[in-house]
Design goal:
The chain has helices at about 1-25, 30-45, 55-80, 85-110, 120-145, 150-175, 175-200, 210-235, 245-270, 270-275. By secondary structure, it is mostly helical.
Length: about 280
């Protein structure tokens, strides 16, 4: 499981985040997006080292970069003075990597954080790169691009993906039932994103490749989030449910490649007609 999770996280650090940053501000300067792969290298390298001082130091360097990114959230809020649903989704995306990096520093140092064991901390890292950053950002993009006739559903998606991600995090501190509530909210938001992508965004795609990428991202979400519900329900009720290794190989890999990567590629191909007005 460790190798697969590390590969997924490396994709998030070096590929998904810089691609997403360009979507947040497609018409503005891309300095941070261009620099991000270099800033993320210490984080990616530390994943493959034994736990210890060197791995922790490299993780801390990556954490510092994520804090710089998170600082853009209040600056953006002051500039836009907006708490519109799509804007909340983008603010969530800017902050989420810092949560992942905090867990990474603790895990690489071998120190349980807030009582969480190292396996949970290790899985928190991909969760907040993909659910926290990628899913929230895509929810915001979909909310912005969806027609007014789908306004209620698109706003619900833009609110519930960040809310579900936060509730899952809070569930770590409470109990498995609270985490299940978070999984239900997050799944509802992700399925709304999938439906809107399929029904409203895909028909406006120019070219078969873009349409195929959007179709794949929508279809994958249906399956991967059903697995997330099954796992969370099993943890709360002790019914038979997938192991963490199996979840990494299905839910984690599916969301990383089938949803996040396909979504980023598709939204970049959609062009300025849908992305120039940022969420």
């Amino acid at each position: 499981m460790t190798v697969l999770v590390n590969l997924i996280v490396t994709l998030g650090m070096l590929g998904i985040i810089p691609a997403g940053l360009r979507l947040i501000d497609p018409t503005g300067p891309h300095r941070i997006a261009r620099l991000w792969p270099f800033l993320a290298v210490p984080g990616a390298v530390c994943l493959w080292l034994p736990r210890g001082a060197l791995a922790t130091a490299l993780a801390a360097l990556y954490a510092a970069a994520t804090l710089v990114l998170a600082a853009r959230a209040p600056a953006r809020l002051l500039r836009t003075r907006s708490l519109a649903p799509a804007e909340i989704a983008v603010l969530t995306a800017l902050v989420a990597p810092s949560v992942a990096a905090t867990a990474l520093v603790a895990e690489r140092g071998g120190h349980p954080l807030f009582g969480f064991d190292l396996d949970i901390l290790a899985l928190t890292v991909p969760h907040f790169h993909f659910a926290g950053f990628a899913a929230a950002l895509v929810a915001g993009l979909v909310c912005r691009a969806a027609p007014s006739s789908a306004g209620g559903l698109s706003r619900a998606a833009a609110y519930s993906v960040p809310a579900g991600t936060l509730l899952v995090l809070l569930g770590y501190f409470v109990d498995d039932w609270a985490e299940l509530v978070g999984a239900v909210v997050l799944t509802g938001g992700m399925w709304a994103v999938a439906l809107l992508t399929w029904r409203e965004i895909r028909p406006r795609a120019r070219g078969r490749v873009t349409g195929a990428l959007l179709s794949t991202s929508a279809a994958v979400l249906v399956a991967t989030m059903l697995l997330a519900l099954w796992w969370a329900l099993g943890e709360a009720t002790d019914i038979t449910h997938p192991t963490l290794t199996w979840m990494a190989a299905t839910h984690g890999l599916g969301n990383a490649l089938g949803f996040a990567l396909c979504s980023m590629l598709a939204w970049h191909r959609l062009g300025p007609d849908l992305t120039e007005k940022t969420p």
